[in-house]
Design goal:
By secondary structure, the protein is α/β, with parallel strands linked by helices.
Length: 807
């Protein structure tokens, strides 16, 4: 199936295998096709109900009651157009940023999209790569983490002949591997499906709440519609032509037909806006979670600082040594040879390669790639063994001897690496020359605990702070979002960098290598900077914050961030980081610019706040219509409103203002449960509508007012209460909101005057006008007192929820 290891498949053979169905095609059932989008927007339960109602109205001859049909058709068309536009933008973004792998084709390395790989391809795997298909190691050695598959974070060494599971990722090392299972046969297809497909249990609070509203309405309209028809046609003896419009009007009022449209349009526009800013959302839940977030955990490198790294300097561990300059030159050469033997492929290694360029081409006997767990790498030459890594881990018991000097570098915001000679369990007194000593010991395979390592030099690294980092963190401070810095670097270094970036309380730091698991819950509340954090500790910190009632977002760009990102409420990956981090994240910043977070959080808050506000308007109509329908059935009275009247009021009280208000910026942090909040906000207006119109109907029938007059008066009364609730949810007013409110009032008056026949608005009697004015005046104080009652209830519920979260 393949040629020699270093030749790989030919391009022609790869194309042939792909055409035969042996390609690494990725399964992703969440990617909607155009047909799926059209079906979802046209063939809905409520559209079926609307079709049945339209047929009944046509049969009954009530053609002027069909005014709701254009609105429903527009709803579907707008929903289709919006989703297709969002799909087009996301497809283009996915193509531009498609995951790739390095394959050996025709004897050369070739960058290939992962879905263009084929069975038998030889691929090059390096640190940070996610294994995109099942494979077997042909040459080299790597350490892999299979946490995404098994939940275990241990690094597993894979050598020649070892099997590799797709979905795991390379922590360190370098190897060539042959693909043995691709496409649907590999683990990665199912992994990607699970990672991107949001189960019902993981849906956002808002989406679940809207689903509950829609399901409840869908269940209720059938028995209520049947009861209304029986009551009007059989009990009251009304004709079929009189019964159908009144029943349809009641059902139209109960159907939240615009909620899904509002949701799809708002989130679709957000998806497009964010995609234009090179931000990709893997699922809809993430945007609401970010709107609710109160804690963001960030890494230093790639988030606070630029993703690039530089070597600021290299100094001898003993600055007072004789012939220091000559010794430093020799050390630079030694480090250059060391770097040439280590297969690590990361920004630290690239920075070292740019600085240390005096290699002699010396070959090594063996090496140990950098381990994020043990914080070091090592190389064994023919006469000695050397290690390079974090000073605390490399020096062990000797660290205290050098701590003051190391801390002095760290306090300048520099990251310190220690280059040392490895002596295993040797006695320090037997060491003669730390640079050229005669002792030769085997390369260390795991922890350096208990080993003797004599420091030779300290390498000082630095990351420039991002230009807009300070402004970004200032924004989150104003928004009440706390920043936690979780890094594998020295806590002193990270703390200094965090201070320079303007992060609050950056002086509160801790060395996580000395942190006990039982103390984490308390430490996460009073500590801002966590240094020397292992991947497992990052995960524990995230879970501790969540248990303390926080909504946590986690940013990351490396394989050591994966575990924490998966457990966070929302995960954000920098595209300049590892493929594994990108695949695990819910949000991907394709330009790796953390300042984009301001726009994402603002976008999320605008969406959820405005959807919440507009959903209140919908629920007013739905609750009122339900109550009035039940009242009509119980009291054996004809439902007073016509379908065309409901359509007009819905347009000027809900549809038009809801659309314009949803476009307005709104940075208020999301708190509380969506359904509880919108129900409590909708109840005062819904009850006011119900009691006012029910009383108007009773009084009208008592005093012999014409049913058509009652219908028109009920329409205007419904509109007035609608404008009152619209004014309430728009407060505090600004010029934009005043224009929206006045525009809707003018639209209502124009519709009633110029299109009175279309919307069943006729001139009414003097008695009806007097009755209408009386009830219109009564609605304002009635609704005001109801609003106070329900506001008080909402505050009590929020207080209980806050106490519950703290417990």
């Amino acid at each position: 199936m393949y040629d020699e290891i270093n030749v790989g498949l030919s391009t022609a053979k790869a194309k042939e295998l792909h055409a035969q169905g042996y390609g690494n095609t990725q399964l992703d059932n969440t990617a909607k096709t155009t047909a799926d989008i059209i079906k979802e927007n046209v063939f809905t339960y409520f559209n079926l109900i609307f079709l049945i109602m339209a047929i009944l109205l046509i049969v009954s001859g009530a053609f002027n009651s069909l005014t709701f049909l254009p609105v429903i058709i527009c709803n579907s068309l707008i929903g289709i157009a919006q989703e297709l536009k969002a799909k087009k933008v996301l497809d283009r973004l996915n193509v531009l940023n498609q995951a790739t792998a390095t394959a050996i084709r025709d004897g050369a390395e070739d960058i290939v999209a992962i879905d263009k790989l084929v069975l038998g391809d030889v691929v090059l795997l390096t640190a940070g790569s996610q294994i995109c298909a099942d494979a077997v190691v042909l040459e080299g050695e790597i350490a892999v983490n299979e946490a995404l598959l098994t939940g275990e974070a241990d690094e597993i060494i894979k050598q020649e002949g070892s099997d590799l599971m797709s979905g795991s990722f390379v922590v360190s090392g370098r190897c060539l591997a042959r693909l043995t299972k691709v496409g649907a046969d590999s683990y990665i297809s199912q992994l990607m499906l699970k990672a991107k497909k949001m189960p019902a249990s993981d849906q956002s609070d808002m989406v679940k709440s809207i689903n509950r509203i829609v399901v409840a309405a869908g269940i209720a309209i059938i028995p209520i519609g049947i009861a209304l028809f029986i009551q009007s046609f059989y009990v009251q003896g009304n004709s079929f032509a009189e019964t159908v419009p009144s029943v349809v009007a009641a059902l139209i009022g109960m159907i939240p037909e615009g909620l899904y449209l509002l949701l799809s349009i708002t989130l679709g526009l957000s998806t497009i806006r964010l995609a234009k800013e090179k931000v990709l959302l893997h699922d809809m839940r993430s945007i609401e979670t970010l709107a609710r977030v109160d804690t963001i955990c960030v890494d230093k490198t790639g988030t606070i600082t630029d993703n690039s790294m530089l070597v600021a300097d290299a100094v001898l561990a003993d600055p007072d040594i004789e012939d220091a300059d000559d010794k430093l030159l020799a050390v630079n050469t030694l480090i250059s040879d060391y770097i040439g033997c280590v297969p690590d492929d990361n920004i630290t290694m690239h920075a070292l390669e740019d600085y240390f360029k005096s290699a002699t081409g010396r070959t090594c006997i063996s090496f140990h790639a950098f381990s994020s767990k043990y914080k070091y790498s090592s190389v064994q030459f023919d006469d000695s063994t050397y290690v390079l890594g974090a000073p605390e881990f490399v020096l062990g018991g000797l660290y205290e001897n050098y701590s003051d000097r190391i801390n002095s570098f760290a306090q300048k915001g520099l990251r310190v690496l220690c280059f040392a000679r490895y002596y295993g369990g040797a006695d320090e007194s037997s060491i003669l020359d730390p640079v050229n000593g005669p002792v030769s010991l085997p390369v260390p395979q795991a922890s350096l605990e208990g080993a003797l390592n004599i420091p030779i030099a300290f390498i000082l690294m630095q990351n420039p702070i991002r230009e807009n980092a300070r402004d970004t963190f200032e924004f989150f401070k104003k928004q009440g979002v706390e920043i936690k810095v979780i890094s594998g670097d020295s806590p002193i270094t990270v703390s200094e960098v965090a201070k320079n970036a303007g992060i609050d309380n950056a002086g509160r730091y801790i060395d996580a290598s000395n942190m006990q698991d039982e103390d984490i819950s308390e430490l996460v509340e009073k500590t801002t900077v966590f240094g020397r954090v292992s991947p497992e500790q990052k995960q524990k910190i995230i879970n501790a914050l969540k248990k303390n009632g926080r909504t946590v977002a986690m940013t990351g760009d490396g394989v050591n961030d994966i575990l924490a990102m998966k457990d966070a409420d929302c995960s954000i990956a920098m595209a300049a980081g590892s493929d594994a981090a990108i695949q695990a994240a819910q949000v991907v910043l394709f330009d790796s610019d953390f300042s984009r977070m301001r726009g994402i959080v603002s976008e999320g808050r605008r969406n959820i706040n405005n959807i919440e506000r507009t959903a209140t308007l919908f629920l007013v109509k739905n609750i009122f219509s339900l109550l009035l329908a039940l009242f009509s059935i119980i009291s054996v009275l004809t439902y007073p409103l016509q379908p065309s009247q409901i359509t007009m009021v819905s347009l000027v009280n809900i549809g038009i203002p809801g659309f314009f208000l949803a476009m307005e910026p709104n940075n208020k942090r999301i708190q509380g449960h969506f359904l509880v909040k919108v129900l409590l906000k909708a109840m005062p207006a819904a009850l006011t509508d119900f009691f006012a119109i029910a009383a108007l109907v009773v009084f009208g029938n008592t005093f012999g007012v014409n049913p058509e007059d009652i219908s028109v008066a009920s329409t205007f009364l419904l509109a007035i209460v609608g404008f009152i609730i619209l004014a309430n949810i728009s407060a505090p007013f600004n010029a934009y909101r005043v224009k929206v409110l006045l525009g809707c009032i003018i639209g209502m008056m124009a519709g009633a005057f110029f299109f009175h026949d279309l919307f069943s608005i006729s001139y009414v009697s003097v008695e009806c006008i007097m009755l209408f004015v009386l009830f219109a005046i009564a609605t304002e104080p009635f609704m005001r007192y109801l609003t106070k009652i329900f506001t008080s209830i909402e505050k009590k519920i929020q207080k209980k929820a806050l106490i519950s979260d703290k417990i």
